[in-house]
Amino acid sequence: MAQQPVEQQSPSKGKRAPEKTHAPQAQPKPNAAKPEAPAAKQHGAMKEHPATHEPGAMKEHGAANAHGATNEPGAGKGQKAPAKEEAATAPGTNVSGQKAGAPTPSARQQRIEERKKGMKGPAAAKTTTSPPAAPAGAGAATSGAAAGKQNMQANAGAKAKKPDPQQVQQIKSQHANFRAQPKPQQVPPVTYNQNYRVQGSEHWQGPQYEVFRSYHPEWHDQGWYHSHYNRVELIGGGYYFWNNGYWYPAWGYSPSAQYYAYDGPIYVGHRAEPPDKVIADVQAVLQQMGYYTGEVDGLLGPLTREALTAYQADNGLTTTAAIDQPTLDSLDMG
User: Fold this and answer.
1) Per-residue pLDDT tens digits for 181-226
2) Local structure of 195: helix, strand or coil
3) Are 333 and 267 in contact (CB under 8 A)?
4) N or C: which end of the chain has fewer CB within 10 A?
5) Residue burial 95-118, b: 16+ Cβ < 10 Å; e: rest
6) CA distance 110 to 121
7) For the chain, percent helix, then strand, then coil, each to nearest 5?
8) Among 235, 263, 238, residue whose Cα is nearest residue 252
């Protein structure tokens, strides 16, 4: 009885060795059917019939491709370009040129590699030749801006608004005795500055703008003004002197009366009409034409100058924001 266990152990050792040698039989054969079974179980597509591996079932669930690599949901039908590239490969190989039985990278990595390859192909050549379109657009914008600047005066005729001559004469008759009053709270006064120059006047071309280019304030007493000019008058809170169609601020004539809404020449024509009356006429005409929305006060303040700038721009005139000869002639008031 003691020897029987020994005799039974020796055959058992001989039998275990073949079990180890036959262990590889549990591994799947190198075909496309076996690796697909785990992917199908993950999505629950073939729980009832694990032995069947129809291609139609796998396409419906998008669970696995022909190489056993799991696809992301919705990736099977959405990637048309990769599908064409897979069809172009030789049978039994995947996109990267590997055999069907060899381990393959994930679908995401394959798409990344395909995109990299695509960028190096003809698409990259197209992108390198396309940039000239951008400079063309920039050139079009530049040329458009230049054309708009050049045609500013040419197109002014379409925007130009001319006053009615009858209304102009009516306004001038109504303002025959107009006198402006200083309004420092509504129209702040300017201060004396011997270094002041009319802004932008260095760019105004033509002899009619020479008085603006050469103007600079001067401070003199009453005797000096009377010895140089025939007319010096108190107008709208400050003294002005008249010279060759223009009124100028007489700085220093009377320190107690030097309220000026604008420091510069004011053109009124050779009839030497008072500047406040001419300013009131211009304000009323521009008001009827829709340029001026302020009060007709005879003061050449900021709001009046803005209206003058708009009218001058629409009529192709130099935008001086002042009452100059071309502007007054354009308004039929020269």
Assistant:
1) 999 999 999 999 999 999 999 999 999 999 999 999 999 999 999 9
2) coil
3) no
4) N
5) beeeebeeebeebeebbeebeeee
6) 17
7) 45, 5, 45
8) 238
pLDDT at position 80 over 60: no
- The torsion of the CA quartet 121, 127, 130, 131, rounded to 10 degrees, works out to -140
Nearest to 238 by CA among 214, 259, 268: 259
CA-to-CA distance for 160 and 178, rounded, in angstroms?
29
Per-residue pLDDT tens over the stretch 81-100: 444 444 444 444 444 444 44
DSSP helix/strand/coil, 274: coil
pLDDT tens-digit profile of 40-74? 344 443 444 444 444 444 444 443 343 444 444 44
Q: How far apart are the first and last CA of the chain?
A: 147
Reference 330, options 319, 298, 248; nearest CA is 319
User: In this predicted structure, what is the pLDDT of residue 175?
Assistant: 94
Q: What is the pTM of this model?
A: 0.55
Q: Residue 179 corresponds to which amino acid?
A: R
Q: How many CB atoms lie within 10 A of CB 167?
A: 14
What residue type is assigned to position 114 of the chain? E
- DSSP, res 202: G
